[in-house]
Amino acid sequence: MTPPPLKLGGICAVTASPSSDLFTELGPDVDGIPVVTPADITDAQRIDQEALRQIPATTTGLERFRLRSGDLVIVRLGGVGRVALVDGVADGWVYHSSCIRIRPDLERVDPVYLAAYLAHPPVVTELLSHAQVGTVPVLTTRSLEALPVLLPDTRRQRIMAEALSEVSLQMDLQQRILTRLSAVRQGLFAQMLGDELPGTTASRAPSAAPERKAPRTRRMSRMS
User: Fold this and answer.
1) How many CA atoms lie within 13 A of 83 on its CB side?
2) Predicted confidence (pLDDT) per residue in 109-118, tens digit
3) Upper half-sphere CA count for residue 13 (Cβ side, 13 Å)
């Protein structure tokens, strides 16, 4: 028998997004603390570390928004429903103002199961139905805390989590393969055809300047 749904706020600590003012110096060349943004969240509910940006370690007001293994980061602005599971590598990182942190009660909730649950299309639809509607949908902490969660017993959660983790791993591997193959294809194409295509502006040889005609002068009238 399926247990009745529980409110997410009853089994997890939901922490609102940090102020956008903390990220004024966010950049790829900054030596400091990595920041998880919506762009870093993959379809496999993982954090892509390839293009992470950072903020200076001297930035104040970050402690409340630090991440640790087992946390979930969910997008609150625009791409509602995109969620990532934090692993040990991301310990001490922070999440962006476009996200919300979910910290499960690990004695009751398996984080892998919860990440997959939150990304499940019917659940995303439910989230969107409670999101603030504007130019882009906005997910609030209160609506997230009120989300009903179907929570099997911990043993069944673990079994499901193991299967889901294997699928996520295969998704990551396939995505990396596709990225490499795309780069190889572009490289082969450029090698066979060169960097310039016929008929393009860059490949056209400069034509000789047209011969300039002498300016016409007004003919003088004959005197009688």
Assistant:
1) 26
2) 999 999 989 9
3) 10
